[in-house]
């Protein structure tokens, strides 16, 4: 039986463990917090993140990263801003296995995506990306979705596609890792912007316009870094953006809602798009790439401008052809 390791027992990591376990894989699910490990071992569910979703018997919960060694692949479901430290700390257990990034974002320190970080820290591993329209609760409940599995190594990509597919997870293969990871990262910024629009009472028409222009920004940056247009138009770009910009299940959208409503947001919840907005705004300035929506989102998050000022600045931009 195939063995899969999952690093990170948040909602998404746990949901993948459930789906792959029900598909007949042996899964080792690693969690950082010892108390969290003990509770999941005892109760066979992740009450903090996915209450009511039982872990299959073939899922082993552990707090020892060494238990991830020797598996057929490791899914990295840790937050993007902690990925580098996690890989460096546990390189001995991980280096050599295919490493599949499930986090979405751009590292604030290095300005790189997950595959570049994996290649640098774990050079013996084949890096890949699993991304697309997927809420953890839907996956854990067995609801269907389709995802992009991007791997530059074509043969390794085929093996991973077979290994990680499940009855409710249809995986489409791509060799464009840059496009896949940037699509997954940048759509979170657009989702925050859409949350701000709805939270501030600017309406659904404004949200639709913002999604469209936000998608144009996504393409602009991704193509500048060598991504393929088709990738951004697929599941990892447009598909994921539509989901996160229109549902309150999205943490990034909810974060934007709280900004638009000037409400407090639970800071214990990981919002990948907040750090990504800041990183991408800096990248855009350095490369001379026009990304006004991303720039405004970063400014609002850093409290450098109000939502009213950001709206006025976007609407006052010079008129041009679409």
Automatic annotation (TrEMBL):
EC assignment: 1.1.1.94
Domain of life, per lineage: Bacteria
One Pfam family, short name: NAD_Gly3P_dh_N
Keyword list, A-Z: Cytoplasm, Lipid biosynthesis, Lipid metabolism, NAD, NADP, Nucleotide-binding, Oxidoreductase, Phospholipid biosynthesis, Phospholipid metabolism
Residues that bind NAD(+): 8-13, 136, 251
Catalytic activity: sn-glycerol 3-phosphate + NADP(+) = dihydroxyacetone phosphate + NADPH + H(+); sn-glycerol 3-phosphate + NAD(+) = dihydroxyacetone phosphate + NADH + H(+)
Chain positions recorded as sn-glycerol 3-phosphate binding sites: 104, 132, 134, 187, 240, 250-252
One GO term of the biological process aspect: phospholipid biosynthetic process
Pathway: Membrane lipid metabolism; glycerophospholipid metabolism
Domain Glycerol-3-phosphate dehydrogenase NAD-dependent N-terminal: 4-155
Annotated coiled-coil segments of the chain: none
Listed Gene3D superfamilies: N-(1-d-carboxylethyl)-l-norvaline Dehydrogenase, domain 2, NAD(P)-binding Rossmann-like Domain
Broad enzyme group: oxidoreductase
Family classification: Belongs to the NAD-dependent glycerol-3-phosphate dehydrogenase family.
PANTHER family: GLYCEROL-3-PHOSPHATE DEHYDROGENASE, GLYCEROL-3-PHOSPHATE DEHYDROGENASE [NAD(+)] 2, CHLOROPLASTIC
Protein name (record): Glycerol-3-phosphate dehydrogenase [NAD(P)+]
